[in-house]
């Protein structure tokens, strides 16, 4: 038995020691058991669509597919926003003097996400899937590769032999590659149903960690050959109901949403934790296509007057509520080949009036111009979507101010294209076009050989000077020679004005304000938003336990005590 006086003392000391041990134990648990806050958190993107096919050969042009494919799959080269090409999987390439043979050399040590080596055989295998007669993907993609021979001369060298010189050919090699070791023996017809589309293996900066009907998780690939992305993880959450996706964004359950509609932009902009960005998609352009083989638009003065009567800024402001950027020529302004030519048809109603007066079109009693008993009238076709109808009505009003009478006829988009544009059965049509790449090669839209029903020259425009400069732009290998060719092409196009470029649509998206590095400069199209996500960064938001851990480490560091700071 301890004396009673000492028993209380020992009990008190024991209590203090126990409390100290508990405190030290708690501190040790904080330091050694609690994981430190990650340097960057995950980013969660809402996708108002079904999960895309994660396959660059099959789904590069769907909205959901174009947004994420470049994060998972890499090509031999990549393009920047103005169309300049940079090596990606390739370390460089050579071109034969006649411009018909391109030889690419791959980087050393390339690997797929599953660790298997990536070599020239994978390049050849991917292109052969696109070229296959039973190819199930985009027909335009297959057309790009028609007649090209692909040879893997060794493990790191691949040679492409073209039937004709094509200076824009390297941009075709931005196409993401597929793994031969997982798909060899699979036909192009069977590719859409292959399990790899749901468990994709690529060679891009992110690898697919999981893919479910509700979400896909992309994790930073540690073996990536380029600059590592800043975000450790990108999660895509798929919403079949657009309103549910918007509610998740506004409620903070996701960090971002793209392709915002006008009313969604207003709601997101009023939400304190969100930043709203917008940029013009310059690979997309709305155009008033003029059939220059029709009686009215065969007259150059009428085409020039019509182009000068269009107030593009007013059209964007009134019909699109500002959601667009005026466009004036066949090559967008951000392209390295763009040139501001003196004859570009900017808004000039006085000049339009003078042109029509000079051509003998006089204002009649009704305000509509006439000549030799014929009214200055035509029918304009448009798709029956709300945006296109609003634009078309604004055009009718603007052209009416200088004496044009325009009858508006709306049609379903498919009918407009198949029954009228492709058959050249129209006088004028409001259409939207989307260039497949950022190279300024517009041969398919404006060369006279493309007037035939299989071509994209819907205007029916044929001019020997335009043909000559477009051919030079395709065949010249030096960038300065190509730029000179496209300068002359744009000048001649402006002199003839075969159609009227109207505007580039605006793409808007919302992102949580704590995400850094987001760009809103002009981009070719909306897919560049997530392509740029490799440069995004996000400060961590530690939990209370993680904040306590950092406080303990700081205090112990002040005392000079060694401490483990890793996970």
Write a concise synopsis of the structure shown.
By secondary structure, the protein is an alpha+beta fold. Helix content is 32%, strand content 20%.
List keywords for this structure.
single chain, 12-stranded mixed beta sheet, Dipeptide-binding Protein, domain 1, Dipeptide-binding Protein, domain 3, 4-stranded antiparallel beta sheet, alpha+beta, 21 strands, globular
Number-wise, the strands total 21
Annotated CATH homologous superfamily of the domain at 284-506? Dipeptide-binding Protein, Domain 3
CATH class of the domain at 284-506: Alpha Beta
Query: Could you estimate the helical fraction of the residues in percent?
Result: 25-40%
Average pLDDT, rounded to a whole number, is 87
Report strand %.
15-25%
**First and last CA, distance:** 49 Å
Query: What's the story with the biggest beta sheet?
Result: 12 strands, mixed
How many helical elements? 17
Shape: globular
Derived structural class: alpha+beta
């Amino acid at each position: 038995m301890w004396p009673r006086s000492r028993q209380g003392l020992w009990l008190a000391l024991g209590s203090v020691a126990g409390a100290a041990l508990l405190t030290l134990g708690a501190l040790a648990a904080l330091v050694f058991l609690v994981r430190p806050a990650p340097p960057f958190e995950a980013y969660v993107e809402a996708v108002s669509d079904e999960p895309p096919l994660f396959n660059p050969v099959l789904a590069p042009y769907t909205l959901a597919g174009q947004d994420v494919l470049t994060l998972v799959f890499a090509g031999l080269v990549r393009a920047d926003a103005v169309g300049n090409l940079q090596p990606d999987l390739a370390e460089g390439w050579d071109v034969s003097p006649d411009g018909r043979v391109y030889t690419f050399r791959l980087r050393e040590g390339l690997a797929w996400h599953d660790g298997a080596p990536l070599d020239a055989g994978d390049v050849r295998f991917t292109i052969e899937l696109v070229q296959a007669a039973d190819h199930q993907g985009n027909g335009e993609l297959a057309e790009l590769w028609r007649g090209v021979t692909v040879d893997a001369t060794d493990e790191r060298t691949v040679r492409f032999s073209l039937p004709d010189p094509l200076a824009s050919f390297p941009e075709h090699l931005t196409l993401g590659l597929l793994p031969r070791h997982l798909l060899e023996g699979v036909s192009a017809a069977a590719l859409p149903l292959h399990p790899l589309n749901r468990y994709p293996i690529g060679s891009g900066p992110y690898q697919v960690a999981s893919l479910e009907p509700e979400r896909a998780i992309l994790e930073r690939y540690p073996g990536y050959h380029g600059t590592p992305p800043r975000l450790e993880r990108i999660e895509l959450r798929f919403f079949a109901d657009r309103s549910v996706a918007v509610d998740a964004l506004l409620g903070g359950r996701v960090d971002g949403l793209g392709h915002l509609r006008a009313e969604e932009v207003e709601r997101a902009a009023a939400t304190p934790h969100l930043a709203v960005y917008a940029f013009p998609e310059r690979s997309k352009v709305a155009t008033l296509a003029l059939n220059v083989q029709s009686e009215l638009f065969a007259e150059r003065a009428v085409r020039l007057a019509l182009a000068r009567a269009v107030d593009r800024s007013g059209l964007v402001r009134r019909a699109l509520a500002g959601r667009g950027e005026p466009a004036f020529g066949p090559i967008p302004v951000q392209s390295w080949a763009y040139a501001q030519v003196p004859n570009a048809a900017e808004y000039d109603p006085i000049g339009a009036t003078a042109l029509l007066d000079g051509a003998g079109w006089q204002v009649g009693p009704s305000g509509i111009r006439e000549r030799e008993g014929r009214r200055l009238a035509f029918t304009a076709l448009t798709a029956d979507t709300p945006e296109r109808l609003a634009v078309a009505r604004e055009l009718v009003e603007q052209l009416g101010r200088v004496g044009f009478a325009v009858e508006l006829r709306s049609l379903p988009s498919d009918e407009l294209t198949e029954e009228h544009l492709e058959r050249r059965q129209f006088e004028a049509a409001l259409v939207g076009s989307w260039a497949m790449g950022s190279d300024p090669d517009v041969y398919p839209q404006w060369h006279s050989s493309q007037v035939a029903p299989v071509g994209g020259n819907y205007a029916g425009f044929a001019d020997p000077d335009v043909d000559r400069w477009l051919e030079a732009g395709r065949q010249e290998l030096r960038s300065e020679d190509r730029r000179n060719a496209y300068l002359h092409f744009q000048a001649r196009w402006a002199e003839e004005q075969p159609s009227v470029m109207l505007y580039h649509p605006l793409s808007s998206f919302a992102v949580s304000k704590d995400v850094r590095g987001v760009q809103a400069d002009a981009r070719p199209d909306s897919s560049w938003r997530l392509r740029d996500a490799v440069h995004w960064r996000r400060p961590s938001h530690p939990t209370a336990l993680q904040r306590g851990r950092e406080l303990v480490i700081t205090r112990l560091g002040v005392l000079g005590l060694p401490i483990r700071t890793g996970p």
